[in-house]
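User: Can you predict the 3D structure of Pheromone shutdown-related protein TraB? Sequence below.
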Amino acid sequence: MSQDETTPPSAPFAALPATSGPLKAVTVGNTTYTLLGTAHVSAQSADDVRNLADSGQFDAIAIELCDARHHSMNNPDAMGEQDLFQVFKQGKAGMVAASLALGAFQQRIAEQSGIEPGAEMRAALEECRSRNLPLLLVDRDVGVTLKRIYRNVPWWQRFSLFSGLIGSVLSRQDVSKEEIEKLKEGDMLEATFSEFAAESEALYTPLIRERDRYMALRLAEQAPPGRFKNVLVVLGAGHLKGTVEHLEAPLPDNPTVEREALEATPPPSKLWKALPWLITILVITGFAIGFSRNTDLGWQLVLEWFLINGILSGGATIIALAHPVTVIATFFAAPLTSLNPTIGAGFVAAGVELYMRKPKVRDFSSLRKDVTHLKGWWQNRVSRTLLVFILATLGSAVGTWVAGFRIAGALFGGDAA
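Assistant: Sure. Here are the predicted structure tokens for Pheromone shutdown-related protein TraB:
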């Protein structure tokens, strides 16, 4: 809603200033939750937060942020302070790369529009500090949401979904007006996935519906009826309706149990976990069959497995401009790691790259700025190491399937000696 469309507040807001965004009050027991629907790219929304806080009627402010994003907002360089080796060891490289890409998208929007996305959240933080009000962080961790999206969508859609995420924030240096408009209803994730979310229940549920429920549960935990008299809740306009509906309906007596369930990452299926071991068994069995038929055939299969895996995985690191030693190490490691599900070619490639390049302090300090441009991902040693990890992993995965089908074809397709 634009400023000139603003209507006078209804009865629950009679003493509150008019706002550019929608207001809705929900009273539970002795506590009133006053929800302000904001646009994440809007100076007016930031003014709305300040004006409401100026009214002096609120004794707490809740905002649509999680601990990680709150920390990042207070410390923009936090991403670059992570231990890269632990990032790779714990399998978080993809999530870190996605977070950097989203941050780059946000920075470009700020440069083009002159408005930093999330200005209303910063305004709420400032008001809490200046007025000594309790700050309540009620949104779910962005990493958990990404993982639940990943687990919720069918496996054949996952690659296109996340390649779309990375591509949408890296492929264009200029952010379109349409993308900026999307941010007026939702946050960075919602703007990026909006093309898919409207048509996919599997995506819409973890991205929107679960977070509406999650925020209502967090309010019930941190600001249960009676703890505060009036809580200002600042959240994107796209979450207003759903969150209000959950607050108006009876919430569980123990909201923590359901909230923790919404934070859990669904485990992969047993078949998916067993697949790498199954592939290893099939490949080794293929080698054995080849040698049993003909020694030359057996060595031919081993050589093709080695070359296909090594060339595709090592070649992928060349795309990331990896150090020559990294390329060579990946070439020799990929055929072996593909037969050992406990370690991946990407982990080996990233470890060698870290040893050879040794990112400097300036790489970490400039990381947030460098990744706003496509070229910067290759120039910064930290982000380039992430690319080495991801591309080596993808190359090895493709090599495993290509070589596996090649072995099957040689043994059962009539090419065997």
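The CA atoms of residues 230 and 371 lie 41 Å apart. The chain has two domains: 23-263, 270-412.
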